[in-house]
Design goal:
The chain is α/β, with parallel strands linked by helices and 283 residues long. It has helices at residues 13-24, 36-55, 61-69, 94-107, 123-127, 161-173, 189-205, 211-221, 228-235, 237-251, 260-267; strands spanning 5-9, 28-32, 71-74, 85-88, 113-116, 136-141, 150-155, 177-182. The protein folds into two domains: 5-182, NAD(P)-binding Rossmann-like Domain (Rossmann fold, 3-Layer(aba) Sandwich), CATH 3.40.50; 190-272, N-(1-d-carboxylethyl)-l-norvaline Dehydrogenase, domain 2 (Orthogonal Bundle), CATH 1.10.1040. α1 (13-24) packs across α2 (36-55) and α7 (189-205) packs across α9. It starts with a strand and ends in a 16-residue tail after the last helix. The structure holds acetoacetyl-coenzyme A and nicotinamide-adenine-dinucleotide. Nicotinamide-adenine-dinucleotide (NAD) binds next to α1, α4 and α10.
Length: 283
């Protein structure tokens, strides 16, 4: 089950990073978006990140050109018919993800592995819309993908041992340390991390401290690389809101309930860095 040809569905924050690290590892990559404007935006963000690496002397211009030559953009899911592995990285919404999995199952080679980058949703639910649940797994990358060293591989009750081994080898090939989690809401990392981010928003909302002091407290008090509100802005407040709602619906534990301030910011279109405004201004 050697993986040489990879497909990535969605070229947003995560999909563009996943496509990039796969191409950096020498794999042949196709990445899709909902329309051409979004595809060009995602590919543009990837090129900007790679160009910064060239400017900083971390890679040569030839390296960058080689990486980009291994990535083909498309808006047609039928182009994934020759892939060994397809990783879905679209919006955190079960209905949309199930629709993609059902389509992929029809289009892809019977041997192809189908993975999701979901942050918290049930992977067996996605697997059961396909005729290959043994070949469905979670490959949960972390943001920003080119920098973060972790890959959380998620096994459902149906994922085969052979598929998990292929997933592990793929993760190591793209330069990540692979940990294995069970298919439960938020897996390992988000089960711990999402309540922390939501608590920081609750603390701000209840007026206990300023956003700057909450972030500085965690930055210096715990030696985290960034404060939790800055992290929320980086994750995307829409994505965080989808994750919180899905985890609360599943676990019914109030620590996963979305704070009202988060809902209001999403309604206002303040989604964090991606819209230049979240808890902080990025213009
Ligand atoms: N994309 C790609 N590369 C980036 C980047 C981005 N968004 N942001 C920063 N970098 C890289 C750059 O190469 C940068 O170097 P240059 O500016 O010299 O080019 C390098 O990181 C260092 O960046 P900075 O000096 O600007 O800032 P930093 O030292 O704070 O590092 C960081 C940035 C790596 C993002 C660091 O702050 C960090 O690790 N933050 C925490 C990230 C984290 O917790 N991610 C997990 C989110 S949760 C998740 O992913 C799961 C989920 O399901 C929601
Ligand atoms: P995003 O909003 O930046 O990107 C999602 C992209 O998917 C959008 O550009 C959208 O146009 C595209 N899309 C939607 N439907 C599509 C379709 N049918 N075909 C092709 N593209 C389609 O979101 P993101 O932050 O990249 O999150 C993507 C997934 O990764 C989610 O499941 C999220 O929970 C997960 N995730 C996010 C983070 C994070 O920090 N943001 C970290 C780990 C995992």
């Amino acid at each position: 089950m050697e993986i040489k040809k990879v497909g990535v569905i969605g070229c947003g924050l995560m999909g563009s990073g996943i496509a990039q690290v796969c191409a950096q590892a020498g794999l042949d990559v196709k990445v899709s978006e909902a329309n051409d404007a979004l595809l060009q935006k995602g590919l543009g963000a990837m090129k900007a990140g790679l160009s910064r690496n060239v400017e900083k002397g971390r890679m040569t211009k030839e390296d960058m050109e080689g990486i980009l030559s291994r990535i083909k953009g498309t808006t047609n899911i039928a182009d994934f018919s020759d892939r060994d592995l397809v990783i879905e990285a679209i919006t955190e919404n079960m209905d949309l993800k199930k629709k993609i999995f059902a389509e992929l199952d029809k289009i892809c080679l019977p041997t192809a592995l189908l993975a999701t980058n979901t942050s918290c949703l049930s992977i067996i639910e996605m697997a059961m819309v396909t005729k290959r649940p043994d070949k469905v797994l979670g490959l949960h990358f972390f943001n920003p993908v080119p920098i973060m060293k972790l890959l959380e591989m998620v096994k459902t009750i149906a994922t085969s041992a052979e598929v998990l081994e292929a997933g592990k080898q793929f993760g190591e090939k793209v330069g990540k340390k692979v940990i294995v989690a069970k298919d439960s809401p938020g897996f390992i990392v988000n089960r711990l991390g999402i309540p922390f981010m939501l608590d920081a928003i609750r603390m701000l909302d209840s007026g206990l401290a300023t956003k700057e002091d909450i972030d500085t407290g965690v930055l210096l008090g715990f030696n985290h690389p960034m404060g939790p509100l800055t992290l929320c802005d980086m994750v995307g407040l829409d994505t965080l809101y989808f994750i919180a709602n899905a985890m609360y619906a599943e676990l019914k534990d109030p620590k996963f309930a979305a704070p009202s301030l988060l809902g209001k910011m999403v309604a206002a279109g303040w989604l964090g860095r991606k819209t230049d405004k979240g808890f902080y201004d990025y213009k």
